Amino acid sequence: GGAWLDTPSFAGHIAGFKVTAVDTVGAGDTFIGAFVVKLVEGATPREAARFGCAAAAIAVTRRGAQASIPARAEVEHWLKSRAN
After folding, report:
1. Phi, psi of 19 (to 5 degrees)
2. Strand locations in 1-84 (E)
3. Domain spans, the chain
4. Is 29 an annotated catalytic residue?
5. CA-to-CA distance for 76 and 80, rounded, in angstroms?
6. Catalytic residue among 17, 19, 23, 29, which?
7. For a FRET experiment, which of 28, 41, 50, 58 has its CA 20 to 30 Å from that of 2?
């Protein structure tokens, strides 16, 4: 899992998060949506990809497409809980 980036400042793999997937429908859409939001807000592509990976990781632990998309605050909390 994870994402591959190729930018002028970084080319490589952004690791995904280990979760138990129950439904992967919508994972890519969730990643892209979260990734673009962070880019628009000024995050680096690496930061945005990490946020997108986290959002997608949460999404695959739930059933459904739209219903599985986590709220921003949930993704931020989830990332903070794994920062150590």
Report:
1. -140, 165
2. 2-6, 11-15
3. 2-81
4. yes
5. 6
6. 29
7. 41
